[in-house]
Amino acid sequence: MATYTDGDVDRALAAVRAACLGLPESSERPSHGGPAFFIKDKKCFVMFLDDHHGDGRLAIWCAAPPGVQADQVDTEPDRFFVPPYVGHRGWLGVHLIDIDQGELDAICLDAFRTVAPKRVLEQLNDQDQR
User: Fold this and answer.
1) In the list 91, 115, 128, 129, which could disulfide-bond 86, CB 3.0-4.6 Å?
2) What is the tens place of the pLDDT at every residue in 61-83?
3) Who contacts 34 (Cβ-Cβ below 8 Å, separation ≥6)?
């Protein structure tokens, strides 16, 4: 059972949108029952989940560089988890309650970099240099 409010969900989704939608060629659309964020409308890099199948979590599932999932889950199991369905591919589950925007931005940027094609990464690097 979820232990957060509708206001928590609205704030968390706004924070995830802020972290994801400023990245080059990123977009949002529903996928698997919740908002998901894609590169070029094809490659998913972050999924937003609110009490997915009654798990009580307000979280994202996101692509992660090799080794990050195990390291984060082992180090901070109260904040990070192995998500179902995509965890076997190294994706990371991140609890959104009590996460600050800077950390969320960094996590979403890492997810983006993990799956982005080379040309989009070049756009990101160009954007960073401005």
Assistant:
1) 91
2) 999 999 999 999 999 999 999 99
3) 47, 48, 49, 50, 52
Neighbouring residues of 9: CB distance < 8 A, sequence distance ≥ 6 = 50, 58
pLDDT band at 1 (very low <50, low <70, confident <90, very high): low
Q: What is the Cα–Cα distance from 102 to 25, expressed in whole angstroms?
A: 21
Joined together, the tokens standing for residue 51 give 């009490």
pLDDT at 78: 96
Distance CA 128, CA 63 (A): 21
Query: What residue ranges in the chain does DSSP mark as E strands?
Result: 26-31, 34-39, 43-50, 58-62, 80-81, 92-95
- Token pair 């190294």 is found at 90
Q: Please tell me the predicted confidence (pLDDT) of residue 126.
A: 87
- 104 vs 60: CA distance, rounded Å: 10
Cα angle: 123, vertex 96, 28; to 5 degrees: 40
51 three-state secondary structure: coil
- Distance CA(129)–CA(10), nearest Å, equals 32
